[in-house]
Specification:
With 103 residues, the protein is of the alpha+beta class. The protein has helices spanning 70-74, 79-102; strands spanning 3-10, 19-29, 32-43, 46-58. It has a 4-stranded antiparallel β-sheet with strand order 1-2-3-4, with no helix packed on it. The longest helix has 24 residues, at 79-102. The radius of gyration is 16 Å and the shape is globular.
Length: 103
C-alpha cells in the first residue's frame, strides 16, 4: 500500500502563524486508489477543515501509475517541480475520466 500526501502552505501574513494548508492525499488500498483533497485553516477566526473532493479509482492499469512510486516524490527539488508533479497527477485523473467515457 502506498500513501502519499502533498501539502502546500500559504502564509497570508508572514511571519504570523496564520496559514492555509492545501492537501492532496493519495492512498492505494488493494485495487482502489483513493484521492482526497482538502484545505486546513489555522487563523484568528478559528481552525477548520474544508473538504474539496474525494475520488476512488479502480486500479485497472497494466503498469502502476507513476505517482504511485516513491521515486516520483523523491525527485522534487523545487517549488516548480512540485507544481509539475501535482499537474501530472491531475492530468492522470483527466485521462482516466476520459477513458471511462469511452468505455
Amino acid at each position: 500500500m502506498l500513501n502519499a500526501k502533498l501539502e502546500v502552505y500559504y502564509y497570508p501574513i508572514y511571519p504570523y502563524g496564520n496559514y492555509v494548508k492545501s492537501v492532496l492525499n493519495i492512498e492505494k488500498h488493494g485495487e482502489v486508489i483513493v484521492f482526497e483533497r482538502y484545505n486546513v485553516r489555522m487563523n484568528w477566526d478559528g481552525t477548520g477543515r474544508d473538504d474539496i473532493g474525494y475520488i476512488e479509482v479502480k486500479d485497472i492499469f497494466e503498469e502502476a501509475p507513476e505517482f504511485l512510486t516513491r521515486d516520483f516524490y523523491e525527485e522534487i527539488n523545487s517549488p516548480e517541480e512540485f507544481k509539475e508533479k501535482v499537474e501530472s497527477i491531475f492530468e492522470f485523473m483527466k485521462n482516466y475520466i476520459d477513458m471511462l467515457n469511452i468505455l
